[in-house]
Amino acid sequence: MKIKINSIFGLLVAFSFIFLLNANGQEAITKLRVVTEMANVRLQPDIGSVIIHQVPQGTRLESTGKEGEWYLVKIQIEEGQEASGYVHESTVIVTERPPQKPTVTPVKKEEVTEPEKKEEIIEPEKKEEQPQIQPIPETPSERQPLESRLELWFLGGGNYAVGGDLNSGAQGFVDFYRDFHSVGEEFDAKPVHLSYLYGGEFSIPIGSNFYLGLGADFYRGERESLLELQETPAIELRTHPKIQATPIRLFISYYPVRSFYIKTGIEYYFAKCEYFYRYLEDTYWKEWHGTAKTQGSGILGAIGVDLEMAPWLSFNIEATGRIAKISGFKGRDRSIDSDGVEHIENGTLYFFQAKGSAAESYPFLFIRIREPIEDVLISDPRRAIIDFSGVSLKAGFKLRF
To answer: Would the pLDDT of 361 be above 60?
Structure first.
């Protein structure tokens, strides 16, 4: 009888040993489900690590381990290819934990007085395994903006500005002297509108699909016109307006989809303008050159396309509209003629109407120490308004950190 009991005990111990070996050979798998709009899968368990993939809300994942606050998961990045990475515990919930390892209690040797008594073996309860659900690969068009990423954009392009009184003054100068010499031929002084543009932006996420940013541009444009009248004596008229601005902007951008955004904000301008007029009649000539600066504010609106090239790099194209009419320019006017007479006047940039030889009046733009006095030759004097309103088209590369 004792030999039989020992045999049963030996079989139980061997069975328990084999069961434990088999259980330890299997990986403990924790099943997860993504609960945020988008979960970042990073190469290492660190918030600063590279993002190797993103999985959308509802995706089921399987984790084979955890390091601190990060779950180690396997993802399918391309058809037939897998990769391992880490997701943060705040982006997922646990839907099923691995079964606990069974505890084997040693069987005590007891004498069995009756041969019909047998030791009952209780097997651990087995849980039905749920089928594995692979994460659904996303397409770039379905991606949402990357979470918690700083953005730095370097841009360049072109700008169109209305110009306002600066262009009107150049045209008025030409028309005044055409009228003075009774020249019937019309001539359009070339206005300054177009300019090159370059700048940069820095933005941070402030909510779902929203970014707050700070940026600055620099643009400068100029245009020269020359009118030569074949009169006796010969007459030459030249104009050369220039426009320059450095707008600093504070803006909010919104991404309704990953590759498209809209933007609105306010701008503060450091503005500058210049005028140059030259009148030549036979051997006599006279030139006026004025430079003035001021500061002012404006508003902007924009739409853009964000073409992702890598998780940390994209190519952006943006169209921006601006409204900014600025006055209060202060500066210096310097005039000189062929006789060597020079006059310098510091003051404010004014716009007024000057009466010609006939009954018509023509717009003039000059810097004067005080506002021109309205009389029979001058009317409607006021501070000049340079209109920086317009549109710009710019493109560049955006870095994400």
So the answer is: yes
**Burial of 123: CB neighbours in 10 Å, binned 0-12, 13-18, 19+:** exposed
Q: Please, which contacts does 66-74 make with residues 24 or more away whose CB atoms are closer than 8 Å? A: 66/30, 69/45, 70/42, 70/45, 70/46, 71/30, 71/32, 72/45, 73/32, 73/41
More confident residue, 165 or 127: 165
271 in Cβ contact with 245 (< 8 Å): yes
Residue 99 has a pLDDT of 74
The size of the chain, in residues, is 401
Token pair for 295: 């500061």
327-366: string of b/e by CB count within 10 Å (b at 16+)? bbbebebebeeeeeeeeeeebbbbbbbbbbeeeebbbbbb
Backbone angles phi, psi at 233, to 5 degrees: -75, 170
Based on the number of CB atoms within 10 Å of its own CB, is 10 exposed (0-12), middle (13-18) or buried (19 or more)? Answer: exposed
The answer, yes or no, to whether residue 217 has pLDDT greater than 50, is yes
Bond into 233 cis (ω within 30): yes
Structural domains present in the chain: 2-138 (2.30.30.40), 151-400 (2.40.160)
**For residue range 160-181, what is the model confidence (pLDDT) as tens digits?**
999 999 999 999 999 999 888 8
At 170, phi and psi to the nearest 5?
A: -65, -40
> What pLDDT, on a 0 to 100 scale, did the predictor assign at position 345?
97
Name which of 59, 398, 83, 148 is nearest 74 in CA terms. Answer: 83
Percent of all residues in the chain with a pLDDT value above 70, rounded to a whole number:
80
Per-residue pLDDT, 191: 97
Q: Give the C-alpha separation, 387 to 351, whole Å.
A: 13
Across 73-94, average pLDDT: 84
